[in-house]
Amino acid sequence: MSSSEKLQLWGGRFQSGPSATFEAFSGSLHFDKRLVDCDIRGSQAFARALERVGILTAEERAQLVSAFDEMRVEAKEPAFYEGATDEDVHTLVIRRLKGKVAGLADKIHTGRSRNEQVSLDTRLWLRETIDETRALLREFLKELLDLANRHADAVIPGYTHMRRAQPVLWAHYCLAYFEMFLRDDERLAQARARVNLCPLGSGALAGSGFPFDREAIARDLGFDGITRNSMDVSGDRDWALDYLYATSTLMLHLSRLAEDWILYSSDEFGWLELGDGVTSGSSLMPQKKNPDSLELIRGKSGRVFGSLTSLYVTVKGTPMTYNRDMQEDKEPLFIAADQCNGSLAMIAEVAKTTVLKPEAPAEAAEVSWAVATDVAEALARAGTPFHQAHKLAGKLVLYSLQNGMKPADWSAKDLADFSPEFRPEMAALMNPKEGMKSRQVPGGTAPEQVRQALAAAAERLAALQS
């Protein structure tokens, strides 16, 4: 067979071939060629398995493995795919193999179904993609911790309902996102564990008729183990959905961070200065510095969410074992991986080049009565029942707003004159930095707790990277 002659892996039962319309509609090579290296590596492992059950001689196995090695190199070049009209990546690989080893290629599919083959290829690809995603995520987390440490003592107002609520440290804010993204890494690791099971030997749905050592095949390809039921694995795409859920949640967190930093870098907030390299200008308005990188991350999250929804809907109506619907699993995976990994690379660069301008958030915390909770809690610690303390602090805020007073305008004497429940030492709480010191519980924003949390976060990240 020539390298360009069309190959079909089925057809004896048919009197005529597929129509041109059906071929165009059902072909998947234009996207599943991305799996070519995984398909070749899987076929090499299968050749070794065929030798172990006596289908191939040692010489035949060596000839096939060598031919596949050549193809792995060739497949890196565009010429490998030029003029290809194959049904899918599996057919392309076999056709190319026939061009190298002629009829010996016909043995490579002995006891193997494309149902298990596509599951294998996609699992191999996804396992490596998850490793790439996690590496990019860890690089971003390193930059996030560096950004936190660069301004570890900076005070910002924390928000609820997008209203200034309580003072916190900038580092405490960054660590909140660190926790979110570390959970994402955990989800990715869990998804990888479900991906990393070898389906080879399952056949089309009933298991292979050849006595393959499935555990040996799994070890050959670096899997943690084998799938347990041939019918289940034929139609199983839970592992793909697990990855799509993990990346969707990761993108959700990236989108939330992007929204924060778009706001915080705006003229209205003025907290952050984004690097020139991650922003763009306007074709009309010379003064503009737009947070395009963050807006794109926020926008690309929708594509990843759509990929999860797409595969969910694709799988939901499929009966037991393989159905051709499953062909539609790969493009959502490819889209999600590309958008997620690209967004992680981008956010790492944003974090690396972003500068906090601490004076602006510090002023926001100082003038906004974000200290009111500190005041109420101090009154409660001094013996005033909390509901009364809450009301008294609220009256102090109302009076101040009506009279144009900021927290710093209140002296110890003024507070005592306002109400005898106020003790002289409570005047210090008008400085946001003072009230923070009481929040010593683990996970709180007290400076000492945040210092410990930063050190612990660095250790946790280092443990993931080791």
What Rg is obtained from the alpha carbons, in whole angstroms?
Answer: 30 Å
**Annotated CATH homologous superfamily of the largest domain:** Fumarase/aspartase (Central domain)
Largest sheet: 2 strands, antiparallel
CATH hierarchy: architecture of the largest domain: Up-down Bundle
Shape: elongated
Strands ordered across the widest β-sheet: 1-2
Would you kindly provide a written description of the structure presented here, covering whatever features stand out?
With 466 residues, the chain is mostly helical. It has 3 domains: 20-110, Fumarase C, Chain B, domain 1, CATH 1.10.275; 115-363, Fumarase C, Chain A, domain 2 (Up-down Bundle), CATH 1.20.200; 372-430, Fumarase/aspartase (C-terminal domain) (Ribonucleotide Reductase Protein R1, domain 1), CATH 1.10.40. The chain has 18 helices and 6 strands. The protein has a two-stranded antiparallel ribbon with strand order 1-2. A two-stranded parallel sheet has the order 3-4. Helix 6 runs antiparallel to helix 7, helix 7 (170-195) runs parallel beside helix 18 and helix 10 packs parallel to helix 12. The radius of gyration is 30 Å and the shape is elongated. The protein starts with 19 loop residues before the first helix and ends with a helix. The model has no long low-confidence stretch (mean pLDDT 95).
